[in-house]
Write a structure and sequence with these properties.
Length: 329
């Protein structure tokens, strides 16, 4: 059984309800049909005044709920809820009603009010457009200061990481993380890796330098974050700053940083900025023919996940399965 199939099997035991608000994208409706066929989750699609969907003939089954959201009895209640949530930010009822005509905002409200266990979007919207409703409505989890995003990478025929499974963070949201944000991202990523794989996270704080082989002011946050994490969480296998080869290759690690608890064995790679994280995941995806699931958001009260606009049907199916594992029921 490959990795994503094992995730689907665990998701099937939970039977979460996941809203896919971009319901008129053909990839989304095809994914909904596949999820229903595989039976690992229930899907909600948002209908716009009853207009037919792509692949309409495949969507008539108990596992798919179609919601004519603009005419639903919950719509006026959600308008009032959004107004109450955001009135201190200048929200009016008129503005709330206009926003909730947007399926992404309505989907986020479904998650907020526990009518859905999670939401997956981004097939035809930017990351900002997808996550803005989540940040405004669902909000961050208790004690969390930094919402970040990762890609779960599954590399075929790979001896590195956790049998080719890696978590790359932040590769979707935080552009230039500070020391504090790198600490938050590393901790959240370690927790996410353990949640998804049920295996021990081994965290590398990545850089172009390994243990002082280069010197630059931009290395400061990475080095400081790694030092803080090792001091505060002695049971967590973490090290930095590490170059990528020292992080994942045991032979290189022996030469560059012998004795490290993480070097050579890392399965969680924390990048110093969004440039390197995004470039890194796309290179691995294309050159190594890896499966890339994400960006998966971490740090929200309830799961709302973004898709790449270049996503495939299988990508959507996989992210829905991962979202089910994130959901607390």
């Amino acid at each position: 059984m490959n990795f994503i199939e094992s995730v689907k099997k665990r998701a099937a035991a939970k039977q979460c309800r996941i809203v896919l608000p971009e319901s008129y994208d053909e990839r989304v409706t095809e994914a909904a049909a596949k999820i229903a066929e595989e039976g690992f989750a229930r899907v909600m699609l948002l209908s716009d005044n009853g207009q037919p969907f792509p692949n309409q003939e495949r969507l008539s089954c108990p596992e798919i709920e179609i919601l004519d959201y603009k005419n639903h009895e919950d719509f006026p209640r959600f308008v009032q809820d959004l107004y109450e949530l955001r009135k201190n930010k200048g929200m009016t009822k008129e503005r709330a009603e206009k926003l909730l005509l947007d399926p992404l905002y309505y989907g986020a409200m479904l998650v907020k009010r526990e009518k859905a266990d999670g939401m997956v979007a981004g097939a035809c919207h930017s990351t900002g457009d997808t996550l803005r409703p989540a940040l405004q409505i669902v909000k961050t989890a208790k004690g969390i200061k930094t919402v970040s995003a990762y890609f779960l990478m599954v590399v075929p025929n790979c001896e590195y990481g956790d049998n080719g499974v890696f978590l790359f963070a932040d590769s979707g949201l935080v552009e230039f993380p500070t020391e504090d944000q790198l600490v938050d991202i590393a901790l959240a990523s370690a927790k996410s890796f353990e949640q998804l794989t049920e295996n021990e996270p081994v965290v590398a704080m990545l850089s172009y330098s390994t243990k002082g082989s280069a010197s630059n002011d931009r290395l400061g946050p990475v080095i400081a974050a790694a030092s803080r994490l090792k001091a505060l969480y002695p049971n967590l296998k973490i090290d930095g700053e590490l170059q990528a080869d020292a992080a994942i290759d045991k032979g290189v690690a022996q030469m560059k940083c012998k004795g490290s608890r993480a070097a050579g064995n890392a399965n969680v790679l924390v990048f110093p900025d969004l440039n390197s994280g995004n470039i890194g995941y796309k290179l691995v995806q294309r050159l190594a023919k890896a499966e890339a699931y994400g960006p998966i958001t971490q740090g929200l009260k309830r799961p709302v996940n973004d898709l790449s606009r270049g996503c495939t049907v299988e990508d959507i199916v996989g992210v829905v399965a991962i979202t089910c594992l994130q959901a607390e029921m």
